Amino acid sequence: MSSRIEQLIDELEEYIESCKPKFMSNSEIIVNKDEIDELLRELRMKTPDEIKRYQKIISNKEAILNDARAKAEALINEATIHTNELISEHEIMQQAYAQANEVVTQAAQQAQGILDKATIEANDLRMQAARYTEDRLAELESIILSAIQAVNTNYGTLMESLNQYKDLIQSNRRALYSTDEDIDSIPMGDDGADGSGLDVIQ
Predict the structure, then answer these.
(1) Is 99 part of any domain?
(2) pLDDT tens, 18-48?
């Protein structure tokens, strides 16, 4: 089952794919600020929980190692008890000593094997969790940068269009007055321009 952050990333990608392209552009799109803000807001809320979950996986490394140490110590204690029991019998002391050494050696080998395996598994878990978290954050960063670029581009285009409309309106207002009137008395913005006819907004 995918995590909520993965679902949100998929929703962001689907939303961006569904956006209409900007007029006369193959690389720019028109986004709805409220919709993309809502998706980004939920991502900001969910990302800390996802990171905590993978940090918990990483912290399990110590629990795995502690469990392995406990099993190793139990094996060694059991071997030591067995050794003491064998040695306590004087008539078979030599045989007991040899058997005790063998048991202790086997126990030490098994304990080392458990520790080695636990260490490898813990390191694998840590690397997988770190890699997954890095991949998700990289995807999130890319999507947010794309959204920011789209919003900035659309804002600049809007301001340029508004300035053009303002210039046309001021020019048309000037054209409404006859040439005999004092042009300087016509109220308009700083960027007004004279004109002999009405300009038409295309």
Answers:
(1) no
(2) 888 777 777 777 878 788 788 788 877 777 7
Does residue 56 fall inside a structural domain?
yes
What tokens appear for 62 in the block? 């110590």
Domain total of the chain: 1
Give the Cα separation of 90 and 42 in Å (integer).
75
Q: Helix or strand or coil: residue 21?
A: strand
| DSSP-derived 3-state class of residue 61 | helix
- Map residue 32 onto helix, strand or coil: coil
CA separation, residue 102 to residues 78, 94, 109, 112 (Å): 13, 13, 11, 15
Token pair of 182, please? Answer: 């004092």
Asked whether residue 161 is assigned to any structural domain, the reply reads yes
Range of the domain at 136: 4-72+120-178
